[in-house]
Amino acid sequence: MTQEDVAALAVENSLPPTRMEIPFTVTVVNTGAEVIVFDSGNGAGRRPNAGQMRERLAASGIAPEQVDVVALTHFHPDHIGGLMEDGQPAFPNASYLIPSAEYDFWSDEALLANDGTKRVATLAQSNVVPLRDEALFIKGGDAVVGGITALSSHGHTPGHTCYHLESGGERLLILGDVSNHYVATLQRPDWHVRFDMDKEKAVAARKEVLGMIAADRIPFLGYHMPPPAVGYLEAKGEGFRFVPAGYQLNL
User: Fold this and answer.
1) What's residue 114's pLDDT?
2) Which end of the chain lies in a sparser environment, N or C, as judged by fewer CB atoms within 10 Å?
3) Phi/psi at 50 (nearest 5 deg)?
4) Is 177 inside any structural domain?
5) Could you count the other beta carbons within 10 Å of the beta carbon of residue 177?
6) Around 155, how many Cα atoms within 13 Å sit in the side-chain half-sphere?
7) CA separation for the pair 176, 167 (Å, rounded)
8) Residue 251's pLDDT is what?
9) pTM of this prediction?
10) Backbone angles phi, psi at 109, to 5 degrees
11) Where does 1-147 show beta strands of DSSP type E?
């Protein structure tokens, strides 16, 4: 799309036309039996104002040793950067849920010689490959943990995976990077995103997953949605409108 088209959409939604702020939201689920972390954040020192996941966990009363499972949506640096700290697993007692198609692609050492894939492949070699013996390799449709099912959403990356959670008849969808922005890629799901490796497949996955969320009124958590990153979708024109989940605070 042209810069003018994107700027016009931003202004239409009361956003600045020349700046986009991207948040990073790691989801933690406590089932009562296991503490499950979805993606691992940027990791220490990866970019300004990020890499604070372990500090945030500590503030919530969760020590790294208490994390039982780390479930990955895909291997982009802001999702696997926090798996290792100082060359050691950041969550020393955890096992890992890893989409097999994602692992098979990024663990190929031939990617290290390609300028287009070298950065992510290098991080995969240092942060994911050493954890393979503690991993369960999964595909779409797999029931991975009690009440949690993997949902294929390939396109953003070769093995991108969402997670569908259900408990007591209530549902929640962990979106990952199917949508990177709460206006641009929700209201215009057919727009191509620079970070999507297979643009058309990503568009198809976006429309399918977002359509399901809207039709079934499933609350969802998006990794790059604005804090607190949980909400609903309503059909709007050719796309969807983000409806943040409301909450009330009584002190």
Assistant:
1) 95
2) C
3) -135, -175
4) yes
5) 26
6) 25
7) 20
8) 65
9) 0.94
10) -65, -15
11) 27-30, 35-38, 69-71, 84-85, 88-89, 95-99, 135-138, 143-145
Look at residue 251 and tell me if it is in a domain: no
User: Residue 147, Cα to own-chain centre: how many angstroms?
Assistant: 19
Low-confidence ranges of the chain (pLDDT < 70): 45-46, 248-251
Looking at residue 193, its amino acid is: V
**Site of tokens 């955890």:** 94
Residue 27 structure tokens: 């989801």
- Domain with 169 in it: what CATH number? 3.60.15.10
Please state whether 180 falls in left (phi above 0), alpha (psi between -120 and 50) or beta: alpha
What residues have CB less than 8 Å from 2, skipping those under 6 apart?
Answer: none
d(CA 60, CA 206): 32
Residue type at 212 in one-letter notation: M
Residues 6+ apart with CB under 8 A from 176: 39, 73, 74, 79, 153, 156, 160, 161, 162, 163, 222, 223
Encoding tokens for residue 70?
A: 């780390």
Q: Please tell me the predicted confidence (pLDDT) of residue 249.
A: 64
| Residues 186 and 230 sit within 8 Å (Cβ to Cβ) | no
Shortest CA distance to 239 belongs to which of 178, 195, 197, 198?
Answer: 178
Structure tokens at 163: 């997670």
What is the chain's length? 251
DSSP assignment of 83-112: SEETTEESSTT-EEEEEHHHHHHHT-GGGG
Count structural domains, the chain: 1
In this prediction, residue 250 carries a pLDDT of 67
